[in-house]
Every structure is written in structure tokens, then in C-alpha cells.
Amino acid sequence: MVGSYHDTVISQTRIKNKVKSKFRQNGILCTGETVYSEKYRKEWREKLKGEKVSSQIIEELWKQLDATMDSVKRYLRLMRSESKKYPEVKNFQDLPGVALVNAATISAILADPNRFAHKGKVWTYAGLGMVKRGSGEKIYSNKLNRNFNRRLKCAIKQSAQVAVSSKDNPFRRHYLEMTLKNGVLPHRAKLTIARKMLATMYGMWKSGSKYDPAKVKGSSKSTESENSVR
Questions:
Q1: How far apart are the C-alpha atoms of 19 and 178, rounded to whole Å?
Q2: Cβ neighbourhood burial of 180 (10 Å; 0-12, 13-18, 19+)
Q3: Which residues contact 15 (CB under 8 A, 6 or more apart)?
Q4: What's the whole-number mean pLDDT along residues 34-50?
Q5: N or C: which end of the chain has fewer CB within 10 A?
Q6: Which stretch of DSSP H or E encloses residue 194?
Q7: For the chain, which residues make up each domain, given as ranges?
């Protein structure tokens, strides 16, 4: 269900890009979201007046877009209903920044927390873990791993972005402490928050517990330990 939802969203985005591209091919400035809305289509049709072929193409693209947008809405309803069978999806949504789609995506992709020996393995699978490469005692590379599940990484990074931009919560406080007090670059701080959120969800799922803000801790020591996969 989650995979079909994301595939449909990708199709929707592709059609939207084609709609705007067709107007631009005809020298018509096309910005914003009104070009997709049925409410404003009369105005957009006027802009293509006299361009018969382009108008016909746009009409077909709008039909495809309407059908795809309806499918996205149906998948959301189905996903909401199906997710009731999985308690972790509801529990994940208690974390700041985590809504239904990302909660269901993380649950569906990880499938079972017992697949992973510890949180470092989860970070690696999500593209958030550091991989060291070396020879003997010499380390010549310490980078984020490149072999990971991109959909999972997108879901957790989106959730982290929302969390640090939302009203006061433990993840936002930790982010502000890192960036304002410790001088950590924003993109590195967000990476740490994404790790912390994923580790929190992994721990909740494995223990069957609910989200407890008091258990979300942030310190220089813990932050440093998250920079490598144990």
C-alpha cells in the first residue's frame, strides 16, 4: 500500500511538470499551483487560445492529473485504514514531525525491528550511518554509506525537518543547542536529529513502548557517539 501510494505521487508530480512545461513551451509564464486547479482552468485555457494542439495536449494532461490526484486521495484513505492493524504506526505519529505517511513508510520498509541488531544497523539501512574504510590502523574514508533505502531516508529526513521547524519539542531543543550553542552546521545538526528520531522509533517498536519526550536526551557526548556506526 505504501509503495503504491509513493509510486502514484511520483506519477502525479511527473504530470504536473508536463503541464507547466507545455505552457512554457508556448512562452507562457507558469508559476504557482493554480495551473493544476480545476477552478482556474478557464483562465489558463484563455492563455492558449489559438494553440489548438497544445490546448488538446493540456486537456489530456489535466484529465490524467485529476485521475492521479483522486488515486492519491484514495490511497491515503486506504493507508489510514490499513495502518490500524499496525500499532507502531500510531505510536510513531506521537513523535513531533511524524505524520501518517512517513510513519507508515518507516513501518513498511523496516518491516520488523528484530531484523536489526542495533540502531546503528538501522541508520546504515536509512543512509544515515557513517562507514569507515581503511587499511591497518589508517582510516582513509569516513562517509555516509551510499547503499541505502532512499525512500526510508526521505521519510525520516522529512520528519526531522518538520520536527526542528515545529513548536517546542525535545528534537527542536537539541537542534537549536547544536546549531546556536555548539556551532554545528544546520545540515549536520539535522542529520543528527534524523538519527535520534529513527533510533527513538526503533527503540519504541522493539520494546513495544510509547513515545516519552523525557527519554529524548541530547548531549555532546551522545551526539559524538552517533557519528559512527557501532
A1: 42
A2: exposed
A3: 61, 64, 65, 68
A4: 94
A5: C
A6: helix 186-207
A7: 2-84, 101-225
